[in-house]
Amino acid sequence: MATAAKEQGVEGHDAERRFYARMALAIIIMTFIGFAPSFYLFQLVSYPRPNPALTPLVMLHGLALTTWLALFYTQIRLVAAKRRDIHRQLGVWGMALGVAILPISYLTATHAIARGLHPPIIDAQSWSAVPLLAIPAMGFLLWMGWRSRMEPQAHKRFMLVYTICMVEPGLGRWPIFPPTMAGHVISNLLAFAFIIPLILWDRRTIGHLHWATKAAIAALAFGSFARYIVWGLGIWPSIVALLPY
Predict the structure, then answer these.
(1) From CA 228, how far away is CA 215, in angstroms rounded?
(2) Are 231 and 132 a contacting pair, CB within 8 Å?
(3) What global pTM score does this model have?
(4) Which of 100, 132, 167, 207 could disulfide-pair with 191, CB 3.0 to 4.6 Å?
């Protein structure tokens, strides 16, 4: 309670709303630009990379993530408009959507293996570590967001970082990153850097990292960097071979 009061005393409700709204818009813009040629503006614009045909599963995945992004921004605006009643009602459906995204993401990732979709830097099975290892991190963030729904300062941080997990797939598709391992690492680091504004916000408003921010950073780090460990050990193809797809 004291932490929340201090946050509101330093920046005020309006500043907090602006922070989360701007973060949501930045994530939406990053995602739209990255997925414009392969989903949003398919066959209307083109970047110098292959854009496979949209299958029903890929379309479902894209629609689910797009709906989440729109819902996340809407929830922020509802709180700003003091319509917390609608925010809570919509939040139940939002959590259901967030849960549904996890198996949809799994199916989409394994579907990509079967289709042989991967960048030229690595084989399809090894590349599947990127989306598949992000799923446990997203599941943890979603669960913690639900558990802390009665603690607004923790809840909103977990929901924000859950949404930040969606930055990397879009940013990695920007044409400025070369199809090399170095290009992948750079885009991954830049996507992870989306956590920096939240760190600065915590430092500015409460003087230290909120406990939820610390937990969320750990989850995001796992989803972002565990792939390099399994790639280095060379064990991921053997693990993927055991998965149903």
Answers:
(1) 21
(2) no
(3) 0.91
(4) 167
